[in-house]
Design brief:
alpha+beta, Alpha-Beta Plaits, SH3 type barrels, Serine Threonine Protein Phosphatase 5, Tetratricopeptide repeat, 3 domains, 5-stranded antiparallel β-sheet
Amino acid sequence: MSEPMEMMTARNSRQWYVLKCRRQILKARDVLHELRKSHAEDFEFFLPTRFVVEQVGGRRRRVEKAVAFNFAFVNCQYTMLRQLVDDYAHLFLMQYRRMGHNDTPCQTKDRLLVVPDAEMEMFMRTIGAYDGTVPALLPEEADLEKGDRVRIIGGQFDGIEGILVTRQGKDGGRVLVKVSEVMCVPTLEIEPEYIEVLEFAPESRHLYKKFDSYIQKIRHTLKACLYHEMGLSLPPAAGEHLRAAFANTGKGQTEAAMFLRRFGNFRPATLNQRARKLVFMLMSYKVLGQLKAMDELMKEAEDFEPRLTAVTQLAFLRVYLYAVSGSRKHLTAALTAVKALESAKKSDLLREMLNEDLNDFRHIYGHS
């Protein structure tokens, strides 16, 4: 029986395989070094170690130990891997993917534990940033499901993707990098401006808290920017939040830029999330004067609008489509949607906010 084409291709190409060092980590590293010397173009390995101070024979000594649970990562073809394990069976043990009942290993050639190149690169970069102890975790010790999936943009971890596992001010923190089924390694602390959200944690309310917080900022910033743009003074009845935004539009524009940077590639899971993201992106582009990007997104929003059936989603989208465009077409649609929202007796707070904003934008655009 012939092998499947994908299995033959995998066996004939170089991949990152995972080996377990049975004992003698430094001896295992010496063997891997020699193999790399003799097969420089066909073999590479990664066996991170660290130095710890231990009490040995009554004296304190620096002892070199493996960082990653005695795992060695080798990059070669399958035939070379097989030869290595056969020749040094006392040092290395192949690792297989866990599958089936009781999470037991399935020991077949096509189930060898392989780490994708991109994951391996992120792992090596993360390990390389530490000076001293690397806090590696087994996958079962890391509760990945509770974190937001993020990408780091800028800084020494630029491009690394993982799970945000600890938080600091304004959602910076540590990002947990998962290495296949082998382990998880947290980065050093990442500043908030370097973290871009790709997916929010399942079952998390964190997304809605973020969006609810942002709408209160961006709606006032947008009004303030439009008052300045139109050369208008604030009405006497303007609230304190609008007055603060009018006095310092730069702060609101900075927050808008941060929103675009952080959530630009976020993938909404529901229609409601997508509608909100579209609105916030449009408002952010408007306050930053990025009109070309706004116009392109307007087309997407208009095409998306017929898919919305909930009156709350529809009213939310239509009011702020009018807010960024100032067009009478969108004003008519917004008035109809807000009227339907009132008839449906939906959330008083949302209805009041949309009514207030619709009236404010009508005043700004001279459509009262």
